[in-house]
Amino acid sequence: TSGPVISTTSAPDEKLPPVPITTNVLTSSSKAKARKKFGGEEMVWALPEALEQATDFVVAGHKARRFAEAFARRCSSESPLIVDACAGIGGETLALAEVAPVVAVDLSAARVACLEANLQRRRAHYPSRAIVGDVGVECKSWPAAALVHIDPSRRAGKPGQGVGRRSARYDDLIPGPGVLEGVIRHQAGVGIKLSSAVDFES
């Protein structure tokens, strides 16, 4: 079957824990979505829900240019580094790695396995590596001069709020406000991707 394929895969890095192998051929609409999000790639490694959440390459490219502008504005003797936190299957990581070396972090071993496979398929200008980790823990070791991109998740809504509904409360983001605000205070620059559905008044 032609077109992109979504798959979970065993981790390409032997240090990562094995994850179930399940291959799903996409519907026509999903294939079109994968091509759009990954700039015409004929194959994308992803979990189905991760593809839904992935940033498309046009938006990711815009963000990458903003990070490049941030590096250009500052005077620092330290080598540039970007941390892509909650990186998922790597939509932003691929774009950010055209600007500077990237360390991508995600809590899901399956998503990190997909991310590494996508990095191997499309070689970026700068080296990137992906690790399985908790952003709330990993952020303590990030160099202060690093620029950080974070794409926090929204918790599942409470019973009675509807199937598949996500909480709109700022306090329910994962990682939570304490981690996000700590990263903002510690790092030289931070970009946070937030859904327009987030209720900032909460």
Structure commentary:
- The protein is built from seven helices and nine strands, in the order E-E-H-H-H-E-H-E-H-E-H-E-E-E-H-E.
- With 202 residues, the protein is an alpha/beta fold.
- The strands form three sheets. Strands 5-4-3-6-9 form a five-stranded parallel β-sheet, with helices on both faces. A two-stranded antiparallel sheet has the order 1-2. A two-stranded antiparallel sheet has the order 7-8.
- The N terminus is likely disordered.
Give the SSE map.
Elements: E1 5-8, E2 22-25, H1 28-37, H2 48-53, H3 57-73, E3 82-85, H4 91-96, E4 102-106, H5 109-121, E5 128-132, H6 135-138, E6 147-150, E7 153-154, E8 173-174, H7 177-186, E9 189-192
Give a quick rundown of the structure:
By secondary structure, the chain is of the alpha/beta class. The protein has seven helices and nine strands; from the N terminus they run ββαααβαβαβαβββαβ.
Mean pLDDT reading: 80
Please write the string of helix (H) and strand (E) elements: EEHHHEHEHEHEEEHE
Instruction: Specify the overall morphology.
Output: globular
Largest sheet strand order: 5-4-3-6-9
Structural class: alpha/beta
* Largest β-sheet summary: 5 strands, parallel
Please give the share of residues in helix: 25-40%
- Give the termini separation: 47 Å
How large a portion of the residues is in β-strands, by DSSP E? 15-25%
Radius of gyration, CA atoms, in whole angstroms: 17 Å
| Overall strand count | 9
Compute the number of helices: 7
pLDDT < 50 runs, ≥5 residues: 1-17, 20-26
